[in-house]
Specification:
The complex is a heterodimer of chains A (about 180) and B (about 650). Chain A has about 180 residues and is α/β, with parallel strands linked by helices. Chain A is built from six helices and nine strands, in the order ααββαβββαβββαβα. In chain A, the strands form two sheets. In chain A, strands 3-4-2-5-6-7-8 form a seven-stranded mixed β-sheet. A two-stranded antiparallel ribbon of chain A has the order 1-9. In chain A, helix 2 crosses helix 3. Chain A is globular. Chain A starts with a helix and ends with a helix. Chain B is mostly beta strands and about 650 residues long. Chain B has one domain: TonB-dependent receptor, beta-barrel domain (Maltoporin, Chain A, Beta Barrel). Helices cover about 5% and strands about 55% of the residues of chain B. Chain B is built from seven helices and 38 strands. In chain B, the strands form seven sheets. Chain B has a 22-stranded antiparallel beta barrel. In chain B, strands 3-8-9-6-7 form a five-stranded mixed β-sheet. Chain B is globular. The chains are: A alpha/beta (about 180), B mainly beta (about 650). Chains A and B meet through helix 1, helix 2, helix 3, strand 8 and helix 6 of A and helix 1, helix 2, strand 26, strand 27 and strand 28 of B.
Chain lengths: ~180, ~650
Amino acid sequence: MHKKSSCFSFALIAILMVPLFARAQDVTDPSLKAAFIYNVAKFNEWPEENSPSKVFSMCVLGDAAVAEALERTVKGRLLRGAEISVTRLTPTGSVRGCRLLYLSGIKKEQAANIVASVRGTPVLTISDLGGFHEYGGIVRLLFEDGQLRFTIDQESAKKSWLQLSTRILKLANTK
Amino acid sequence: MGILALASSAWAQAPLPDLSLEELMRIDAGRVFGASERIQPVTEAPAAVSFVTAEEIKRYGYRTLADILRSIRGIYVTDDRNFSLVGAQGFATPGDYNSRILLMVNGHRVNDNVFGQAEIGAEFGLDPALFERVEFIRGPASSLYGNSAFFGVVNVITKSSSALDGGSVTVEAGSLGTGLVRTSFGHSFANGLDLTVSGTVDHTDGIGRIFFPAFNSPSTNNGIAENLDSEGTKQFYSRLSFKGLTLITIYGTRHKDIPTASFGTLFNEQVWREQTTDRHSLIDADYERSVGHTNLTFRASFDRFSYDGIYPFESDPGSDPIVGQNGVVGSRWSFAGGLTRSLPGRQTVRAGLEFIDNISQNQFVRYLGSPDLAMSEVRSSTQHAVYVEDEIKLSRRFIFSGGLRYDGYGAFMKVTPRSALIFMPSSAQSFKYLYGRSFRAPNAYELNDFYFGQSVGSLRPESIDTHQLVWERYTNDWMRTSVSSYWYKADGLITSVLDETTVIGTTFVNQESVHAKGLEFEAQMRLKWGWKALASYAVQKAIDQDTQAELPNSPRQIVKARLSIPGPLPRSFVSIEGQYLGRRKTVSASYVSSNTVANVNLIQPMGHQWEFYAGVRNVFDTKYLDPASSSHRQDAIPQNGRTFRVGLQLKLWSK
């Protein structure tokens, strides 16, 4: 390369890169999933609690990047007046207190066990695992042609005393 | 470009969590298939990847795959008013038939088996309205795909019924006597059957009078080719999927009159026009199935390519011209099987087998009025290959991937490796070092010993070693930037040289060696008010090692920018793009000057059923030329000035 042209191009790139050193947040997979999870939560009705808690607990298992993105997503945001907390679960940890559960990157048997352990309780289960509905998972995320799509198992939602808004059901792919 | 990128982040799109679910579902998650034969985030893919989505194809009014490729950073397209030649990484030798780019439809190779040609103009045979997305994967990929994945891979992903959403009829008209009719239908049945069918007929008269100074003499109509630029296509596409099985059928044919009097034919011959007809049929059955943690794919495909050229040559004064007909019929079966499996230690393995039976790779020449063939080369061959690629997530921050492929041909075998080290400081940023070796095998045309003499029997595959450094970054939910640099050494390139002993007067030898390096930058922005912008810059230098001269048709700099904004009326979009191409050397070592071309397109839905659109290409009527091959008397071929198109789509029903 001629000296002149390479100097020019490097200068150009230096200029163009300036805004990149600003605070970084991504629109990659994890942040898209996190924004989706938050959005679904907004349009889901949980049954009334006897003693409404001040904190709404979202739990993530098996995907640190989504947990990270979800923390950023819910920062400073409320869900029906409640603050939102994000808890990172370990495979052997308890899911107690979780009102929304995102599962990813774990084995089918593990996921099935966790879903079974919250069956009949108002916990919204979301996952990008294939066959998530087979063992009672409620919302399954998938990517179609590079865009986010989801399916909902309404039977499982009802069994968990959850009511997803018709708006969401309209957007969901039929299972 | 700088101004765009420096726009303060006050212009940035609303944060993701504040978008509606519908808006989230329209965002492209930046995933790519063709880099590893499986879907993965662009940041983790062992390649520098660009893609163009259906939304962009519609907004910018792209009419051919060539239009789409032109919009990608570092890519340029040369048109000799017969075929379109794609240039990548500074390499596009005039007269080549795109045999160093692998073209795939849904991951299936569609380069023909005689010229190895990737047909990217209207001759591609598939309407861009049916593209879900087009991926361009830079650099060598023979370790995954074998032959022709030399400078890059173009993977066209076609639409399923959900993207077509019911039935529609489209009618278009435009300048240069252009007209198009398309009918499409897509439906997803309750039992899981998904069906898409579409057909398109397209015609253009082309430029009525083209002036070629090289023919400027009274005996050749003062250099004016009259009404010899028409082009017509017929395209059919169907896709049927049920459970894991997908069956695609494609038929496309393109007929083109050639105004350039290439290959020494008669200039402005009106009765026996120089012309080419290309046809491609494809039946492609793909079955995918998951067994436990293993994803299995099986594929069987049948391709048939045919090509006919009519070439009028001078005969005795006063008598009819001698008309040569050149024909090619290539057909092949391809069988492929592959598996993707996660292994302990955070590994993902992809392995596969491929077998190709080239049933025919036939070429013939005959002269009209003579019952015998003047040349007939009947050829068939087989190829087989096995490959494996392993991706290891070394830690949360590092990914290593390595791949190896063995290709067996009758006369030779080839082993090609690839490796990648990817560092991801966060899920929004990645640095990649990529190394790969690729090959391109001599094709059946080059091996035609009737044309080129016995010596072509000893042609060997050409090879390339490419290193790439890539930096990709997502910023503040609104900008994606990518910087990539590459350097490569291509050796034993199959080069056309003069040889008086052959019928044609030339032959092919493994001769040319090219060293090149380049730097590319791209920024893609999603701004407020629904604005979307993309800007790219590529600088490159490709040198022939024998002559130490730069390659013909290799621009030093390429700059592109495009912007799509909501139009004056609700739901309308106005999209503007500009492309600058630096000056290029011609084969006779003169230059065609640099050029800047701008295009504008408008789409305007009207009610729920109608959609109107209009586009102007080359808005400023820039006069520019593309370098021609040595089979032309012209050194360069003039390109279209300002043209326009209007179209109307009627949705017959939707789900």
